[in-house]
Structure formats: structure tokens, C-alpha cells
Amino acid sequence: MAYCNALSQSEGRTPVYTIDGGSVTWDRGADGYRLPTEAEWEYACRAGTQTPFNTETSISPEESNYYGHYPYEIEDNYFSQGALTTKPGQYRQTTVEADSFAPNAFGLYNMHGNVGEWVWDYYGPYPAEEQTDPAGPETGTRKVYRGGGWNDFAKNMRSAYRAAMEQDKGSFNIGIRLVLNAVPASGSVTGSAARQENENPAGGKVLIAYFSWGGNTQGIAEEIQRQTGAELFEMTLVNPYSTDYNTVLDEAQRDQNQQARPELSAHVENMEQYDTILLGYPNWWASIPMPVATFLEEYDFTGKTIVPFCSHGGGRFGQSLTAIDKLAPDAQMREGLSVHYSGGSSLPDDVAGWLLTNKIKTE
Questions:
Q1: Looking at residue 189, what is its pLDDT?
Q2: Rounded distance between C-alpha atoms, residue 35 and residue 22, angstroms
Q3: CA 69/CA 258 separation, integer angstroms
Q4: How much of the chain exceeds pLDDT 70, in percent?
Q5: Cα–Cα dist 114/96, whole Å
Q6: With contact defined as beta carbons under 8 Å apart, do 149 and 35 qualify?
Q7: Reduced to 3 DSSP states, what percent helix, strand and coil does the chain have, rounded to the nearest 5?
């Protein structure tokens, strides 16, 4: 938003935003640059379509820049890929030029994939009644970003998919798309962050809480414990997942599709004593495993700091940070650590740098 104002001033336009700490007032009549609203973004992305993607087909890696190994609906067809409308394709592992693919029917490029795009709105449930040109909730703890990035699965690039993150955070796969008013407007809207930063964002007593299936996440957690001396808590299940890789893929996807909450067999006593939770998990289907969702819903994380770490096979965090943000909206989230599989020989140094970045004490 500060950049929008600076760009507006450089071109002799009237700045759109008045920024006062975590509160921003948007002058809807100003002719300067701004972020689109969530409604404007989706309207522009859809370009008259009502299908999951503006291509009106199951979007392919030849039409957009995403984690091409995982096209739309592969989660239900991982072992029967002949049934897929779009087959797995290229994964570029980086951004591409903005005009690398054909535009949508409105002439707009990369509405799906490449980078997610910040919008004006705070994240919250949609109102039940019909809305015209809405600007979202007046307050919130997370801002919405749309469109999916180069490392997202196709399911997270749908025109309707909503991602969210704290407004002062950034990521390697999030960017901006600036807009100008197409027609004159009037009035103003103010949006305010619902809470302030913690005075000690990664201090106090630390708990390392993790879910691990194949051992990679457990190894990361144990390295963190070695460097910090913090307590370890492993999320274990009353009915554990299969030890067979192919079977657990089906089980994990089944639980995601159902948004299941598998019952945990162990629980944290006196969660209130911990100020910072180092939360670990494998990236499963571009999100958190559902046992982690069970854990996040079991406790009150208001005022606590969550610092995520994950093991992955190439997708880094996927949309797991958004999943955590939605389940623990009153917690602060700090800089995450994504580790490729077990991390290899660089793991100790990677962990040490991550702890230092987040100002977490080491032994």
C-alpha cells in the first residue's frame, strides 16, 4: 500500500491510502494506484466464466505456471492418472515473465499461478446476504491473497480459492497486481488490524510440537530440540496411518477431502505455560496433515507465537501456512523453515539460522 502511494505520487496521481500503523483508510475517489478488492480480483480472474479456472478446462502447465506434477483433481486420481482431464506436466520451480501464457478473456495475464496476489480485504467468512462491490470486513488478523503461485497445486489456483496471511509478512510466491479505478467512485473505507504485535514475539517457554510419518519431520524436530533444549511433543493418533506409502497417500487425501480431524492419542498438559510453539509437519497434498488441524483446534493459541517448520518433496510450504493461519487466527506466525526431505548435511546450519532469525534462544 505504501508502494501504491509512492507510485501514484511519482506519476502525479492522488494517493489512495492513508496509512496509520495497522489502520489504513482507502479513498475510493482517488485516482491513484491501489490493490483490488477480493471481489474485483475474482471478477477479473473469472472473465465471465463460472468454471474452476478461467480457461474453462482443467488448467495445464502449458497454460499457467504452477506445480505441474499436480494438476487439478490429481488428489483423487493419483494411482489412476488416465482418468485425469489434464495430465501431470512441467514444474518450473520459479517465476516466469508475466506474459508467458495466453491472457484470459479480459486480456489479463497470470491470474492463475506464478505468484499469489495481495488484495485489500481482510480474511473472514462471506456475508450470508447478497453483496455488490464489497470491500470485506472492517477488521481482521489476516489479509487475503489470491491466484496461487509457482509452487502451488492446481486446486489452490482456482478462481474461488482464498489464501490468507498476516499483512506484514511476505513470501517467495506472493506478489501484487495494481489497479486503477475504471470509473469514478466516491466514499472511503477503513480497515484495521484486529490486534497488535506481541511485545515478545518469540519469547517465553518454547514447545516443539510435530507430526511425522516417515521420520523426516521427526529428525528436524530432534535437531531443533538439540539446539534449543525445548520440550518435544509428538502428535500421535488413536488410529495411526498405514506404514505403507501408497496406502497413506490415499488415507491422507481422504482425510483432506473430508476435512477430517483424526483423534490424537497424546495431549499437551498446561498448554498455557508455552508462549512459542515450533510447529512441525510434512507437506501433504500442499497443506498440513489433518492431525495438525486436530492439534490446532484443541488449544487456545490466542497471544501465542507459532513458528512453522515442514519437510517437503519440492513444494516447500504449499498452502500449509494459510491452513495454519485460518485455524489459529489469533496467534502470531513467524518465519517458517521448509526442509527438503530430511535436510541432509546442511540441516544443523539451516536450523541455527532459522532460530536466529526468529530470535529463539539456543543452548
A1: 95
A2: 16
A3: 23
A4: 98
A5: 7
A6: no
A7: 25, 20, 55
